[in-house]
Amino acid sequence: MSDWRNRLEMIVNKTKAQLHAKGVDNLEQLKGVFDGADKDQSGTLNKLEFEELMSGLGVFLARQELRTIYDHFDYNKDGQITYAEFVQVLKTQMSEARLSIVKHAWQKIGGGAADCDFEAVVAKYNAPAHPRVTSREKKAETVFNDFVNILGAKVCNGKLTEAAWCEYYAEINAVMPNEKENYFVDMVLKVWGINSDKAAVNPARLAQIEDCIFEKVR
Description:
By secondary structure, this protein is mainly alpha-helical. The protein has 13 helices and 4 strands. The chain has 2 domains: 2-90, Orthogonal Bundle (Recoverin, domain 1), CATH 1.10.238; 96-208, Recoverin, domain 1 (Orthogonal Bundle).
């Protein structure tokens, strides 16, 4: 069973890797991929449509694997995969390193407050520093507009909360494979102009280092 669980995690991660390679950076773009695979425009994927979506992403499955993976994505077991079900599987828990950098960025941008002015946040966003822009995969204007539209949809009365901030990055995490850990951290550092020295060390690790130094001094 554990072997299959490992295989399942590998397939899900490969799916995310292929999405990332195709320039999918958020759930809005993922919805476009999903809708493109929904040939009959039913709002769901049947088994054939799902198989074509996966093979189109370069994830080729044996017949038994396809059946098991399809059932895994089909959360309510009605024989169809909705977009919400598809996202639910991809939305794996954010790693400690990714969550740490997201929280650190909020402390820098929001000053530790429960919420902050959205327009002030937008003014600090440096789209030209985004890895997709520096690699010339996307235009700064495209990255900036995606950021404003997607994060803006989570804003209430002009205020951005820490919860909405974390949700925004959790959605980016949903389409970014495990091996892109450094990419994720670098992306957050660059667009917000954060010094990497302190950001790279999470609070628990920092406390551990301080204890170690104290012991050596003592």
